[in-house]
Amino acid sequence: MDHKEVGRYWNENAAVWTKLARDGYDVYRDGLNTPAFFNMLPDVNGLSGLDVGCGEGYNTRLLAGRGARMIAVDISEKFIKFAKEAEKSEPLGIDYQVASAVELPFPDASFDFVAGFMSFMDIPETECVLSEAFRVLRPGGFLQFSIEHPCFSTPHRRNLRNDKGLTYAIEVGDYFRNLDGEVSEWLFGAAPAELKQTLPKFKAPKFTRTISQWFNLLIETGFLLEQVEEPRPSDEAVRQYPDLQDARVVAYFLHIRARKPFDRSTGK
Ligand SMILES: C[S@@+](CC[C@H](N)C(=O)[O-])C[C@H]1O[C@@H](n2cnc3c(N)ncnc32)[C@H](O)[C@@H]1O
Questions:
Q1: Burial of 15 by CB count in 10 Å (0-12 exposed, 13-18 middle, 19+ buried)?
Q2: In terms of DSSP bridges, do strands 95-98 and 69-74 run parallel, antiparallel, or are they unpaired?
């Protein structure tokens, strides 16, 4: 399966995803991933940024809110349509475009930073995604992205729950087998059951890499690793979003920032 075929799956997911996320049911994003990503993010005020795999644009709007001049791409036309509608009703100066992370339609060294919120692990051509991000960054610019944690989002995975229904462990296995497009079907767990019964499930092709594959690919691409985080929900976040309880048992997500070095010979 290549990125174009994956894109067709995401295009089919876009309408339900946008509705549920905008209704507040993407609680891992709202209660954990996005706050952690922005906690780790350097000051982007006045910088030019690219959001890769922006979906309906929620996190792009937050980046623009921090003063960044944003372009955002997604392979799904429908996601970009929803993002553009939001831009039209509340303009933030964001330029949304349909494009694939694998072949970015921008010249070399166009951006001060590249962001990827939970999108890089959905694209089979991982090497190209990283090399394209590297190419469009100016020397000294940074890439920051979040993915499902490679060690705990394995081909075999099962939540083990106590008699109160609370997760106390995650069973993982088959870690070294790279999933290559097996389609998982699901909806945001926090959405009400009655609603979930009426909606088609997301169909998302899965691609897994081990943690050493991710780090080595970044290093081979030329990036310098700068910061790594494994977000853990606070007590307050779990009170607000009880579904986050299971993400306190192991790290569900991995956030990485890496920098494109200056050329040592020219200093540029
Ligand atoms: C899990 S969603 C995350 C969306 C958004 N970043 C967020 O945090 O809400 C993954 C996104 O990656 C996009 N995507 C998948 N393959 C892509 C590709 N090759 N190029 C650009 N975007 C892609 C999907 O269309 C989808 O919007």
A1: middle
A2: parallel
pLDDT at 56: 98
* Ligand 1 close to Cβ of residue 6 (< 6 A): yes
CA trace torsion 238, 240, 241, 245 (10° rounding): 10
Pairing verdict, β 111-117 and 137-148 = parallel
User: pLDDT (tens digit, 9 = 90+) per residue, 194-247?
Assistant: 999 999 999 999 999 999 999 999 999 999 999 999 999 999 999 999 999 999
Amino acid at 74: D
| CB-ligand 1 contact for 116 (6 Å cutoff) | no
123 in ligand 1 pocket by Cβ < 6 Å? yes
Phi, psi of 73 (to 5 degrees): -125, 150
75 lines ligand 1 (CB under 6 A): yes
